[in-house]
TrEMBL record:
Highest taxon of source: Bacteria
One Pfam family matching this protein: adh_short_C2
Protein name, entry field: SDR family oxidoreductase
SUPFAM superfamilies in the record: NAD(P)-binding Rossmann-fold domains
Family the entry assigns: Belongs to the short-chain dehydrogenases/reductases (SDR) family.
Amino acid sequence: MDLQLENRSALVCGGSSGLGFGVAEALAREGVRVCLLARNLSKLELAVERIRKEGGEAQAVAVDLNDLGALEMAIEQVVAAIGTPDILVANNGGPPPINAVDFDPQLWHRQLDAMLLSSMALVNAFLPSMRQRRFGRILMISSTSVVEPIPGLVLSSALRAALANWAKTLSAEVAADGVTVNTLMPGSFWTERTETLTLRAAERSGMPVASLMAKEQAAIPVGRYGATEEFGAVAAFLASPLASYVTGALVPVDGGVLKG
């Protein structure tokens, strides 16, 4: 299927690895000029090299999304590299595990900047151009914890839910301008973060890693972890003109885990 994305441009946050890279790779294969935004320059360079080897167009900008001042400068670099993007993929690595009873105001403030305000700042920077040309796609990469909080990950669950509600509100405000805003809710995909969380869980429980992985996958109706390519394919469709009637949606990509 031709997704009609040839010659479009996209900014993919967290694009150096994991789900972000899966989205960037899928868009590049459709002819989109992608700019990857992440903290680690060496990982960014490797990701750009992989995309270019497949014939895609890719640039990279290194920035820490925790630093809103640095993000402003990074936005200028993005525009210099690919112009004002048609597609914004707002994505950030998950915060550290914490329980609701373990209140740490400084940690909450840092993660508020990284997970919520950084995405809002990026939208604020690029939305006017999207509305002016009457085409824009904003994708928030979130988690199933938006609707079913995950024990021990209260920072992630609470802040992602806040961002999803903001995105839903925004979607109605810009729908008539040809701009769609959707939130993707990935379930269990085997990424670096998943591996880290699984190793921590195995250490806490005393269960062998292989046994814990088998248990986790058995709880997924399709019986396995998702592949980043599968997630990228869903995101690429939502970024395309073919998905112009899909906006304000919470889209689960979770192998059937969510029941509601």
